Amino acid sequence: MAGMDYEIEVKEVPAHPAVAIRDKVATEGLGPAMRELYPVVWAFLEKRGIEPAGPSFAVYHSYSEEEVDFEAGFPVAEP
């Protein structure tokens, strides 16, 4: 992947209700943490009869070589 050019674009999008879990993990544990959290959020929605309003997402609040602060969740139709 070294030497690849990427175009990064910042977009403003309208607010949308979502259900998510926020966590901080060691960077090397990000994949396992996400695989653990998505089913927990899904079970929360399912238990309440809430359908996701789109695909799963992740929000990264901070990302360093040591630690990642992120949210894993799903958009929903209503708060």
Description:
This protein is an alpha+beta fold and 79 residues long. The chain contains 1 helix and 3 strands; from the N terminus they run βαββ. Strands 1-3-2 form a 3-stranded antiparallel beta sheet. The longest helix has 18 residues, at 30-47. The mean pLDDT is 93.
Descriptors for this entry?
79 residues; alpha+beta; three-stranded antiparallel sheet; 1 helix; 3 strands; 23% helix
Q: What fraction of the residues are assigned to beta strands by DSSP?
A: 25-35%
Please give the number of β-strands: 3
**Order of strands across the main sheet:** 1-3-2
The tally of helices reads: 1
What general outline do the C-alpha atoms trace?
Answer: globular
The largest β sheet comes out as: 3 strands, antiparallel
Name the poorly predicted regions. none
Alpha-carbon Rg, integer: 15 Å
| Helix percentage range | 10-25%
Structure class: alpha+beta
How are helices and strands ordered from N to C? EHEE
What gap, in angstroms, lies between the N and C termini?
A: 40 Å
Overall average residue pLDDT: 93
Concise account of the structure shown:
The protein is of the alpha+beta class.
Topology, element by element:
Blueprint: E1 18-26, H1 30-47, E2 57-63, E3 67-75
Antiparallel strand pairs: 1-3, 2-3
